[in-house]
């Protein structure tokens, strides 16, 4: 319920902002503890800066009976490093809460491959849980 409310609130604010473009993404991240999946909602400015929120959790582990352990959610900031028409490089910083207990900051770098005006693919690497992590995301412009 919190995720739906957060996403809808961000979407409404995005519709009101004229110089910004709302972007939604779904993604996977491989960290030292396993695969995680999640969603992100961003505002992208014309200068390609991005800011928004994200939610990420682990796949359920049947053998351990865990459902969505290590839930990670919070705010994200994307800063452009290099821009072109078909490929962009970003530095990103995620500030969030894990398991409603720990506040963490995770830096990363991401390459965005642009397929059309509405769809792009992001491939990134970051530093998570004191180890490198790999990520893949599909972005789509909402407006």
Keywords:
Porin; mainly beta; 143 residues; globular; 1 helix
The profile of the biggest β sheet is: 8 strands, antiparallel, barrel
Mean pLDDT across every amino acid position? 86
Question: What are the low-pLDDT stretches, counting only 5+ consecutive residues below 50?
Answer: none
Backbone structural class: mainly beta
Spell the H/E element sequence.
HEEEEEEEE
**What is the helix fraction of residues, given as a range?**
10-25%
Q: Count the domains.
A: 1
Radius of gyration: 15 Å
- Measured between the Cα atoms of the first and last residue, the distance is 24 Å
Q: How many DSSP H or I helices?
A: 1
Shape: globular
CATH class type: Mainly Beta
CATH topology: Porin
Physical arrangement of strands within the biggest beta sheet? 1-2-3-4-5-6-7-8
Q: Which strand-content bin applies to the residues?
A: over 45%
Number of strands: 8
CATH architectural group: Beta Barrel
């Amino acid at each position: 319920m919190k995720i739906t409310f957060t996403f809808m609130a961000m979407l409404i604010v995005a519709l009101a902002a004229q110089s910004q473009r709302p972007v939604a993404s779904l993604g996977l991240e491989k960290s030292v503890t396993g695969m995680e999946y999640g969603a992100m909602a961003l505002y992208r400015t014309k200068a390609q800066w991005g800011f928004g929120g994200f939610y990420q959790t682990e796949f359920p582990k049947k053998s351990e009976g865990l459902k969505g352990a290590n839930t990670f959610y919070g705010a994200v900031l994307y800063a452009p490093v290099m821009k072109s028409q078909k490929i962009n490089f970003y530095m990103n910083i995620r500030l969030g809460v894990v398991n409603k207990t720990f506040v963490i900051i995770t830096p990363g770098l991401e390459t965005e491959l642009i397929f059309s005006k509405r769809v792009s693919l992001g491939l990134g690497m970051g530093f998570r849980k004191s180890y490198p992590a790999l990520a893949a995301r599909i972005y789509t412009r909402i407006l």
